[in-house]
Amino acid sequence: EPRSPWCCLVWTLVIVTMNILVFLINFLLMFVTFTIVLLPTIVVVYFGFQCHSQVLHSAARYCKSILDDNSSSALIILGFVIMSPLIVVAMAIYCSLARRLHLFMCFQPYSRAVYKGVKWRWYKEGGFCGCAKGWNTQVKAWV
Questions:
Q1: For the chain, how far is it from start to end, CA to CA, in angstroms?
Q2: Between 57 and 103, the higher pLDDT residue
Q3: Which is deepest, 48, 56, 61, 91, by most CB within 10 Å?
Q4: How many Cβ atoms from other residues are within 10 Å of residue 104's Cβ?
Q5: Residue 91: burial class (beta carbons within 10 Å; 0-12, 13-18, 19+)
């Protein structure tokens, strides 16, 4: 049966807040995963730009003794070349983690706020967002 307008508004705010928290958890997981996997690229490109005379030309000792403009350019090119495969690896790791943690199952539809008696998704799945029961590899996020 439908909820009253005020009750629907309160439940809508609860569901929107919960979905925003789930989104932020997903975003944080993605940010951490991409940062860790892309760290070699970030470091190589950083040192390449830091020591190149046309960009920053740092006065650090390693820039004067080890890296000249040619080697700095090589570092910049190497960093951008290894970025593409590392982005694919980072995305695969993130998707694997999100699937194992059932993070996409935690999003709740708006119908939970409109109607009384609609069971929460984690209640039907046997735990919070489906994590309490055994790993089911056939469960899809959109079901």
A1: 23
A2: 103
A3: 48
A4: 16
A5: middle
Q: Residue 131 in contact with residue 101, Cβ under 8 Å? A: yes
- 66: Cβ contacts below 8 Å, ≥ 6 apart: none
Task: Please tell me whether residue 95 adopts helix, strand or coil conformation.
Answer: helix
Residue 132 has pLDDT above 50, yes or no: no
Evaluate whether residue 79 is within a structural domain.
Answer: yes
What's the domain range around 46? 24-107
Of 121 and 50, the structure prediction assigns the larger pLDDT to 50
Task: Mark out the alpha helices in 1-138 (DSSP H runs).
Answer: 5-37, 39-51, 61-65, 69-100, 111-114, 121-125
How many domains are there within the chain? 1
87 in a domain, yes or no? yes
**Within a domain: 95:** yes
Looking at the domain assignment, is residue 133 inside a domain?
no
What pLDDT, on a 0 to 100 scale, did the predictor assign at position 35? 97
Torsion, Cα of 94, 100, 104, 106 (10° steps): -130
